[in-house]
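HUMAN: Mind sharing a backbone?

ASSISTANT:
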Amino acid sequence: MSLAAARCHPVLAAAAALAALALGVTGADRAVAQYVQHRTADAFQQATGTPRAPQVTIDGFPVLTQAVAGRLNHIGITAQGIPADPADGRLPVTRLDLDLTGVRQSGDEQAAHADSAKAGAFLSYDDLSSALGLGVTAGDRPGYVDAQVLLPLVGASTITAKISAGAANTIVFTDLHPVSGGLPDAGTQLLAKIFDQPIPLHNIPQGLHLNALLTGAGGLQAQLAGDNVTFRTGAPAAGA
């Protein structure tokens, strides 16, 4: 449309101006969203020690007004490979999916807080095997895992154990009994000692609580939730 035509059609001219303004606002909002996503990913990576930055999404439009107000309505974070030191018996988190509601930065600029959060964590049997020092696979019944141990003069023996969520974001094992292979008393006592120690999750944001564990083909599915959830840059999170 020519400038002369726009002058002849004030309604169309106003619509064009509003469209241009909207495009400008949308572009600015997108830039702010990308900046906040990058800062959030960087802070979360520093807090948890993931090998690469997590994927971050911010819901709601406009993000600009949320950022100015200092409170983001909803943030989704997907992190891969949250590590743990095998020497201390802690369990790394293979994948963590976080949904944070009401996210704001703390006064010291080193921590972020969420009014509430829900999370799903995947814990692979490979990582669980490394933490226990045994070969762990899915059990024959829901909520159970099988663990295979090789003992001198006995060979391979398999036991099954029920898993459940324990205090302080730990995995506990109960209802141990043999599945196959002979297991002498010494072996039974050894395995009972291994499974008697709860396994803590590592680098879970403070305020998240492990509520349930489900067994799957490749690992455990953990369900977590909490209020006033915090993760702090450069400092160990809850369970550290």
User: Anything to note?
Assistant: Residues 1-9, 12-23, 235-240 have pLDDT under 50 and may be disordered.
